[in-house]
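lol forgot to send this yesterday, sorry. struct tokens for the thing we talked abt
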């Protein structure tokens, strides 16, 4: 696979475009690309474009768009991961790997036992950072659609949203150490189902949060006999869903 770059603008076959400063630096300094080298561009709207570098110098990097390819690498499952926020490195890991696993949407949530608390300003900065993490993961794994990441909200507000927007075919899960049901005991969801998965923080959901989630018609779920950390729980669950119902 050629080096891939996200270009959030219109891309037209035959046109010459200039890479952003960030992409130029990555192409020249990290990947050591040269004039004439093939690359791939995508704008997050589906499909990708083969191109080649026309000119790479200190001031700019221009490329020529050669062809469009209608390539779709999205999972057939629509999965929203509601992840209780955790320390930066763990949250970045969760976001990056969930993108690779085919997640559709990521909803950071604030819970009682979260050890990270963000002001509005810091929350906005983290959201922009997480969006860049998603772009980088898509460039690496070949996805041509950008998964959505939503602004941070409380678990209670998210549960209210899910309850209001839920359709008859949707499946909502909560990972819980108290659960006795596994994914293998759950029938395959319909093709049009939206799957939501709630993952607690390092200390887990409080009893009140678990009760509220269950009263919102979430199915308690457990993976095996071992307790998973917050940074592995959601990823393991999504991977298992892809094996049982998706494209693995």
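and heres what i got for the seq, position by position
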């Amino acid at each position: 696979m050629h080096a891939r770059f996200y270009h959030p603008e219109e891309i037209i076959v035959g046109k010459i475009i200039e890479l952003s400063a960030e992409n130029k630096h990555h192409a020249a300094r990290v990947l050591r690309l040269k004039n004439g080298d093939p690359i791939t561009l995508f704008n997050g709207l589906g499909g990708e474009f083969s191109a080649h570098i026309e000119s790479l110098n200190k001031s700019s990097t221009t490329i020529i768009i050669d062809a469009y390819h209608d390539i779709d690498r999205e999972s057939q499952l629509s999965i929203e991961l509601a992840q209780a926020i955790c320390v930066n490195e763990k949250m970045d890991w969760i976001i990056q790997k969930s993108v690779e696993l085919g997640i559709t949407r990521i909803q950071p949530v604030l819970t009682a036992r979260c050890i990270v608390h963000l002001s509005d300003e810091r929350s906005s900065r983290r959201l922009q950072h997480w969006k860049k993490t998603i772009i980088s993961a898509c460039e690496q794994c070949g996805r041509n659609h950008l998964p959505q990441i939503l602004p941070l909200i409380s678990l209670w507000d998210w549960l209210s949203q899910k309850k209001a927007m839920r359709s008859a075919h949707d499946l909502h899960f909560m990972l819980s150490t108290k659960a006795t049901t596994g994914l293998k005991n759950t029938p395959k969801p319909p093709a049009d189902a939206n799957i939501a998965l709630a993952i607690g923080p390092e200390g887990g959901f409080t009893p009140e949060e678990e009760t509220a989630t269950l009263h919102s018609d979430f199915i308690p779920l457990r993976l095996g006999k071992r307790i998973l950390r917050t940074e592995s729980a959601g990823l393991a669950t999504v991977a298992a869903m892809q094996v049982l119902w998706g494209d693995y």
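The first strand starts at residue 3 and ends at 6. anyway ping me if u want another try
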